[in-house]
Specification:
The complex is a heterodimer of chains A (442) and B (220). Chain A has 442 residues and is of the alpha+beta class. Chain A folds into 3 domains: 4-167, PAS domain (Beta-Lactamase); 221-291, Orthogonal Bundle (Helix Hairpins), CATH 1.10.287.130; 296-439, Heat Shock Protein 90 (2-Layer Sandwich). Chain A has helices spanning 4-57, 140-176, 178-189, 208-255, 259-291, 303-312, 327-331, 338-354, 408-418; strands at 80-86, 91-94, 109-115, 118-127, 132-139, 299-302, 322-325, 333-336, 361-366, 372-376, 421-427, 434-440. In chain A, the strands form 3 sheets. A 5-stranded antiparallel sheet of chain A has the order 2-1-5-4-3. In chain A, helix 5 packs parallel to helix 9 and helix 8 packs antiparallel against helix 9. Chain A is rod-shaped and about 160 Å long. The model of chain A is unreliable at 62-71 (pLDDT under 50). In chain B, strand 9 (132-135) and strand 10 (140-143) form a beta hairpin. In chain B, helix 6 packs across helix 7 (171-178) and helix 6 (152-163) crosses helix 8 (189-201). Classes of the chains: A alpha+beta (442), B alpha/beta (220). Chain A binds chain B through residues 236-238, 240-249, 251-252, 255-256, 261, 264-265, 268, 271-272, 275, 396-398, 400, 402, and chain B through 8-12, 14-16, 18-19, 22, 53, 55-56, 78, 80-81, 100-106.
């Protein structure tokens, strides 16, 4: 059942019905027992009364034979029947409406019998002095009618009240559930970008956990959206400058009459397109890192093969930078996501190449702990106060390179985190340059 | 016209330098707030093109410091952040104009000419002295209605003299207008240009004030 109101209504109605039913059963059996007792006592008293009458009037077997009037239809007003029999088996007297046949064979006390197809309850008193049996009885059917009439009397108003009660329950439930409806209204009518928390000060205690959970969700969504907006704004900003450069250089190429100027502008355009392409590639890589929530599948990755891939690319080739890779790294196989590892190592490599003087050497080695990979360049290093900032997106410090996007170390850091590793940046102690380690925690 | 460009992106800065140069301006280029402050302290510029996001801070800080120190150099802000609130903040910080990236090079040149003109206290786009008229937008000159063929340097020397009619400009002041920092200055270049100009526009048009410099003659 999807409606809380309907569900509560059904439960309440069933419970009320069950309580009523058990009350009726209880009253029925109680009343029945009480009535039996009262009517039995009445039988007994009536028999004794007749007996005492017989005794005081000196009635004998001889004078008791009187014809009775014909029996009438039995109602409440004709409940008791009386017969007086002599010990030798003659009917001495009977009350009107009493069957002709002997009511009971029992000599004294209570007995149940079927007379003329009807169940009777009879009480017999034996009068030894007069030689008579005095029998007083009533029909059991009558007793049952009494009880059932009583129960009907109880049930009739209850059945009348039942729909009223149902209506009352239904309305009360509606009133009780009003805070929920108000909350639903609040959430339904708000704008798509309205992430303000739901006011839960007046919410009932049962609804509070729900509002708190919702508000928690709103806060999380809002944080994610703000982050997304910031990244998008930054990306747009970072793309505008190279676009402005491209347009300016293109306009120079169109306007310049000096072939040397035109040639220079065209070269700048090619350079700018390369740089912008790389910026877009890095932005996409970042967006992908941000978007994929599920952990990447781990596999056995040959670090040597990854190095082949990233040092093979033409990036930085013009700078005549040499790359030295420790032999032990080439043989190394690690359990990691190939994509993330390549992304991290490639961006570290490109960052190093960008900051290298021509003819310098980049060195990849195993860290002292044996659980990480380190890269060392011969660039200017990073000022100590900027070391903690360079993994921020679009941060370009004082030692920025001309072609840097401000994203490389941010991507390497994000990829490392996704792999469960962390990036440690230090300036080299043996000479100017930066040393970056990817260290796995395990 | 000498312009200071403060832009850290190398390709865009190169484009600005070459592009404004094509429009007849002498361009000096720096990449940081610190260098911009140093340049302003040592040279006089007719206008400044200032990027907002620089590696060592915000261009707005440079601008505010300039205005606080009473520097009246016209400033055009050039930035990727061109939302209306950004523009308002920039203009209210003392900028004379604002252009969002990417922009049209010709528009940028025109705006730089406009703020430089206003900075020099002029409203008319053309420089006029006697029968001589210079149009900085098209880099063309006329003498008594006749087109005058001038080299880029000659045009620059003449416009420097005509921007302040009646004022004497020293040789080094004229040199400052002609050459950026990186350019080699020949020792007698100004004399040579003046000599060529006199041949084209008449002996008496440019007056030599002995020991001080040169002055344009306003009445023919």
């Amino acid at each position: 059942m999807t409606s809380l109101r309907g569900r509560l209504f059904a439960i309440l109605l069933t419970a009320t019905g069950l309580i009523w039913l058990s009350a009726v059963v209880w009253i029925y059996s109680g009343t029945h027992r009480e009535l039996e007792h009262v009517l039995d006592t009445r039988l007994q008293e009536a028999a004794r009364m007749v007996n005492s009458l017989v005794a005081s009037t000196g009635m004998t077997t001889a004078i008791a034979a009187l014809p009775g009037p014909p029996p009438e239809a039995a109602g409440y007003e004709r409940q008791l029947s009386c017969q007086i029999w002599s010990f030798d088996g003659r009917l001495m007297a009977r009350s009107s409406g009493t069957p002709d046949g002997r009511l009971t064979e029992a000599a004294s006390g209570f007995s149940d019998r079927i007379v003329d197809g009807e169940p009777w309850r009879i009480y017999t008193v034996a009068n030894e002095a007069a030689g008579l049996h005095i029998m007083v009885g009533d029909r059991l059917g009558l007793r049952d009618r009494l009880v059932s009439d009583l129960i009907k009397g109880l049930l009739a108003p209850a059945l009348l009240i039942a729909p009223l009660l149902g209506l009352l329950i239904w309305i009360s439930l509606g009133q009780g559930l009003r805070p929920l409806r108000a909350m639903a209204n609040d959430v339904r009518t708000r704008d798509a970008d309205d992430m303000s928390p739901i006011d839960s000060t007046h919410a009932p205690a049962e609804v509070k956990p729900l509002t708190q959970a919702l508000n928690g969700l709103f806060a999380k969504v809002e944080t994610a959206r703000r982050h997304e907006r910031e990244v998008t704004a930054f990306a747009a900003h970072e793309l505008r400058t190279p676009l402005a450069g491209l347009k300016t250089q293109a306009q120079i190429a169109m306007a310049a009459e000096d072939p040397a100027v035109r040639q220079g502008a065209l070269q700048q355009i090619v350079l700018s397109v390369d740089r912008t392409t790389r910026l877009v590639r890095q932005l996409l890589a970042l967006a992908k890192l941000d978007a994929s929530g599920e952990p990447q599948a781990r596999e056995a990755v040959s670090v040597g093969a990854v190095f082949e891939e990233i040092t093979d690319s033409a990036f930085g080739a013009a700078l005549h930078v040499t790359v030295a890779i420790e032999p032990v790294l080439r043989e190394l196989t690690v359990q990691a996501s190939r994509e993330l590892l390549t992304l991290a190592l490639r961006n570290l490599h490109e960052n190093a190449v960008q900051h290298m003087p021509p003819g310098g050497q980049i060195t990849w080695r195993m860290t002292a702990s044996g659980r990480g990979i380190a890269i060392e360049d011969e660039g200017p290093g990073i000022p100590e106060d900027e070391l903690a900032l360079v993994t921020q997106r679009f941060f370009r410090g004082r030692h920025k390179s001309a072609i840097g996007t401000g994203l490389g170390l941010a991507i390497a850091d994000a990829a490392a985190r996704r792999m469960g590793a962390r990036l440690i940046l230090t300036n080299r102690e043996d000479r100017p340059g930066l040393r970056v380690e990817i260290e796995t925690g395990a | 016209m000498r312009i200071l460009v403060v832009e850290d992106d190398p390709i865009l800065a190169d484009g600005l330098q070459v592009g404004l140069n094509l429009a007849g301006m002498t361009v000096d280029r720096v990449e940081s707030c610190a260098d911009a402050r140093a340049a302003l302290a040592t040279s006089v510029f007719d206008a400044m093109v200032l990027d907002l996001m620089l590696p060592d801070g915000s261009g707005l800080d440079v601008l505010r410091d300039m205005r606080r120190a009473g520097d009246r150099t016209p400033v055009l802000l050039l930035t990727a952040m061109d939302e209306t609130p950004d523009r308002i903040r920039g203009l209210d910080s003392g900028a004379d104009d604002y252009l969002g990236k990417p922009f049209d090079l010709d528009e940028l040149s025109a705006r730089v000419r406009a703020i430089a003109r206003r900075g020099a206290g002029r409203a008319a786009p053309c420089l006029v002295a006697g029968g001589l008229t210079l149009d900085p937008a098209s880099l063309s000159a006329t003498l008594d209605g006749m087109a005058l063929a001038l080299s880029r340097r000659e045009f620059a020397v003449l416009s420097a003299l005509m921007e302040r009619p009646g004022t004497v400009l020293s040789k080094s002041e004229i040199e400052d207008r002609l050459y950026g920092w990186q350019e080699e200055i020949e020792s007698n270049a100004v004399e040579v240009h003046i000599h060529h100009l006199r041949a084209k526009i008449g002996r008496g048009a440019i007056e030599t004030v002995r020991g001080l410099g040169y002055r344009i003659r306003t009445a023919s």
